[in-house]
Amino acid sequence: MDDLAGLQSRILAILVIGILLIGFALLLRATASDARRRGKSPLLVILLILISFPLGLIVWLLFRPEPIESDSPPFRLKDHRIQ
Q1: Confidence band for 73, pLDDT divided at 50, 70 and 90
Q2: CA distances (Å), 51 to each of 25, 42, 47, 64, in order?
Q3: Which end of the chain has the lower number of beta carbons within 10 A, N or C?
Q4: What letter would DSSP give residue 80?
Q5: Helical pair 42-51 and 55-63, crossing angle rounded to 10 deg
Q6: For 35-72, how does the pLDDT look when each residue is reduced to its tens digit (9 = 90+)?
């Protein structure tokens, strides 16, 4: 009975770690795409996030530049405030 419980806990741990790694990989892919769209080096942005996660992600989100080629105008909060 203990062997079955140990096996189940190992399988659960592997699944959780796998899901977290997949989520982290998707986060890095989206960040690289965002960096490319904003004219920054995706490699440097990904290194920033990998070396100092989650602080690096927060820094990127706070200080990222405007997109270079954009069909839509930039979002300005003052345009959407209720008077």
Answers
A1: low
A2: 14, 14, 6, 18
A3: C
A4: T
A5: 140
A6: 998 989 999 999 999 999 999 999 999 999 988 876 66
Burial label for 27, CB within 10 Å (0-12, 13-18, 19+), is middle
Q: Which amino acid is at 70?
A: S
Distance CA 9, CA 6 (A): 5
Q: Which residues of 46-83 are buried (b: 16+ CB within 10 A; e: fewer)?
A: bebbeeeeeebbeebeeeeeeeeeeeeeeeeeeeeeee
Residue 41 structure tokens: 């080096």
3-class SS at 25? helix
Rounded Cα distance, 6 and 76, in Å? 54
